[in-house]
Amino acid sequence: MSSESRSELECFRQLHQSPEIFELIQSHKGTEFQLQKQLREQYPEDVVRAALTLAELRVRGRAKFSRADQMWFDRKSLEQATPEAVSQYKAARFSGTVYDFCCGMGGDLVALAQHATVTGVDLEPLLCQFARWNSEVYEVADQVTLINQRLEEVKDREGLLHIDPDRRPGSGGKVIRIEDYRPDLETLLELIQEFEGGAIKLSPASNFAGKFPGTETELISLNGECKEATIWFGRLAGEAEFRATSISKTGEVASIAGHPMDAYTSITPPGEYLYDPDPAVVRSGLLDVAAAESGLSRLDAEEEYLTSTDLVESPFFRRFRILDELPNQDRDLKKYFRSADFGQLEIKCRRIPVPIEALRRKLSLKGKEAGVLVIARLEGKSRALVCERE
Fold first, then answer.
1. Rounded to a whole number, what is the distance in angstroms from the first to the last CA of the chain?
2. Which residues contact 107 (CB under 8 A, 6 or more apart)?
3. Between vectors from CA 94 to CA 91 and to CA 95, what angle results, nearest 5°?
4. Which terms in the Gene Ontology molecular function aspect does this entry carry (predicted)?
5. Per-residue pLDDT tens over the stretch 59-101
6. DSSP assignment letter at 211
7. 105, 267, 333, 347: which sits with the fewest CB atoms below 10 Å from its CB?
8. pTM exceeds cut of 0.90
């Protein structure tokens, strides 16, 4: 451990032993300067800095964790942490004994520990300490062991594996290619052969297609945002090659599995309704499968927007009622919105590049209603669909 890492770890340990500092921060009514001055009269400067930063991060962490106000993380580990709802969904497949390689601050680890006995492994001593404290916050510490080592030094391969490779292995920011992850693709493929089953967490933007033969690739979205691609292997893999899963704000889970070639969707003119697919469905390649299951048709061979004449309810699509169809020309759009009763306008596009804010400034929006303008290809032609959100 470097002297810098040791110093940081000792700082957080001292902070952990001084929980009253967070009560002082929360109850303070004065300025930031006054708060810092008060705290520095009672605590070392590095502990004050760490406390103020962590207090800020705990507020941000509420978007990911139900117990964020008690948790421990730094900026990078919070940003990379799996949201609690996604971790809990994935963890339900696990049981028995599990290794959580590259466990970080323990977001997945605490969820896994609700179903299994988990050994978390991470190279960073501070992250191991965070994971230990977070397992206590979630009352699963008895199910957790932490090892501060390189994963290559862990020789045991009993049970299942969860691994979250580092997507920021250097100082240059995020990497997209799995070959640039740490551990890299070659090591991940070796681990698949060594463990009886498990899951690999990847960025949904990564080049995962075709890299993990014989596995199940699941794209998971939360509140309409695609959060990760999970590679399920061994005895945890499902029968289908691809799966798309949508988790709603209320925690409801919808999942569809298959292969992109399992279904064909016809192309038709716009009907009464327009549907914007969940990004997990699009990224998994299962758009036609989900469309066929719901009886929807495409607007264009290359366009993800779907349509129907009859109303369709599906957790995989956001529905809009189509009010008008226009040419995608400035003069036609300006003329239409001068007489329309819209005061708010959401502009959506997928395949056609649109300068959204520039277009919005050109339109007269002096009415009262909220509308949606969708720029899309209809059988190869760029058109504008005026809609209202259902």
1. 56
2. 64, 65, 81, 82, 83, 84, 87, 134
3. 130
4. methyltransferase activity
5. 999 999 999 999 999 999 999 999 999 999 999 999 999 999 9
6. T
7. 267
8. yes
